[in-house]
Amino acid sequence: MITTIIDWIDERTKIRSIWDFITNRPIPGGASWFYVLGSTLLFIFILQMLSGIFLALYYVPTPDHAYASVKYIQNEAFLGSLVRGMHHWGASFMMVLIALHMLRVFIFGSYKKPRELVWLLGIGLIGIVFGFAFTGYLLPWDQKAYWATVVGTNVAGTVPVVGGLLVKIMRGGAELGNLTLSRFHAIHTYILPWSLALLAGMHIFLLELAGAGGRWNPARNTPDKTEPLFPHQIFKDSIVILIVFLAITALAVLSPAGLEPQADPTDTTYNPRPEWYFYFVFQLLRIFEGRYEVIGTFILPTIAGMLLMLLPFVDRNPERAPAKRKLLMAIAAVTVVGVLGLTILGGMAPVPSVTAPSVLAGRLLYEKNGCSACHSIHAKGGAIGPDLTHVGSKRDRDWLIRHFKDPQAFSPGSIMPKTALPENELNELTDYMQSLK
Amino acid sequence: MSNNDVSRRSFMVRTIIVIFAFIGASLGAALGGFGIIPALKKRETGWSDAGTVAELTVGQPQERRFSELVKSGWQSEKQDRTIWIVKKTDNSVVAYSSSCTHLGCGYRWVEAQQRFACPCHGSFFDINGTVLAGPAPRSLDTLPARVENNRLLVRYEVFQLGSSAKVRV
């Protein structure tokens, strides 16, 4: 039955010969575990597309609703946490695998003639993946999203001459707001996916035309060792894809994507930190100060990008064995160690301990116990109880603590409930009140 | 193939190229303008009430919040603002934008060290807004402010960050 249907289709489309052409594609020197990274990246891209499309069923890209819709996805929608978690962890895996893929191609010398264009498209794809990461970040509209994007867009502002213009174009205006969110959303869900699909398609097609590179030692790429793509290489690919899929799923379940409080542009107590794959940029910003800043934000990344693009045209020696390309291997090693080092340092960067931990704890207690239902601080909260914006300069510690325990003793007729917090939490809440001056 | 055919063929080829170059250029210009020009509009600002100045003490910066109505594309919305205000010894009041001049993180006053600290990349400013340490390229940005009937009126403005020149956007 199935054969009959395929025969019918084949008669009209020659689908069998297309299938044969693709699956019999020769892998010089035979299939290898080193070659699995490209197909795994393709798999993650499809996973990101699918999970992203389904997230869009609930997500709303406006500052009024973005946070609530993501919160709904995360906490209420059936399997929402899993789908969002897969999208979140898929992004991290894409970063790691695309770096490994590039490193593999670099070490194997696979970028050399006739595959220069494949390499160039690969550099473009890395740019697109970073674009995805940067624009995806803002969409949940939580504190991390908002502040990382404030900093990220301002980094673009340090580009000489056109920086100011660039920031405005990225943000859709002078400030981060509704226009930034709709812009980032359009870029993340329409422009970048189509660009990536197009470039990835060309990347694969041009590799097909130029032929896979195989082993770096030409002596090992003999016809007797050649294996077909299917099933030999696809088998290895599938095993790794399965492992990656299980890892992403497990992480999505065990360590769900975070969601911080809703974005608050007026919060001066928040300590912004980027996602881990931007730690190396974050650390560069800490190293290059003042007028040298532009080195970290613009000059170094531009030089790195240019060098990567020029690599196949500068290094035209057909020799591919790493042992005979010692200088390049050394440069690669230094770069890898450098990026890893910056990433680790960025992750450990200290936060200036300017707000006492007890004040922060008190602030959380204030939120948790619903104090803002009656009281307002900086014009946020209810109007039933007194405004607490400057309570720290009006009441002393002793008064505050005794008042918490028995409000009516101080303000007869007060409807404030007696606070039944343990002593340490009462102290933290009082510390927070005292910090409001 | 006669010469006539060649010129006919090259005419068609050129026409096809011109047609699609024209469509490409005009569509590109229109879409580019649509995407970019509205973003370059200068934001309009008005005066906002940032509270009383009676509670200010010299040498003790205060964080003030207020909201203003901001038109952002299709939306007019109430936007919350934070500023830092400092009373000087001559009783004048200075208002600072709450964005660190480096890359825009919200900085805070550290009472114990008598200085402003930014949590992102470690910039520090003294009470007059001068950079003490860190990557910030210029002093804290002051905002136009005036005192009327004991209330501080502030015009909230946004400046380009990360550069040594204070340029309003």
Question: What's the short version?
Answer:
The complex is a heterodimer of chains A (437) and B (169). Chain A has helices at residues 2-13, 15-23, 36-55, 66-75, 80-108, 116-138, 143-156, 163-171, 178-210, 229-254, 279-287, 293-314, 326-348, 357-368, 391-394, 397-405, 407-410, 423-435; strands at residues 26-27, 227-228, 376-377, 380-381.
Shape type of chain B: elongated
Count the beta strands of chain B: 11
Mean pLDDT of chain B: 89
- Share of residues in strands of chain A: under 5%
Terminal-residue CA separation of chain B = 63 Å
Mean pLDDT of chain A: 90
Instruction: Describe the global form of chain A.
Output: elongated
What is the count of helical runs of chain A?
A: 18
- What is the makeup of the main sheet of chain B? 4 strands, antiparallel
Radius of gyration of chain B: 26 Å
- Strand tally of chain A is 4
Number of helices of chain B: 1
Task: State Rg of chain A.
Answer: 28 Å
Amount of helix of chain B: 10-25%
Structural class category of chain A? mainly alpha
Helix proportion of chain A: 55-70%
Element-level helix/strand string of chain A: HHEHHHHHHHEHHHHHEEHHHH
Oligomer: heterodimer
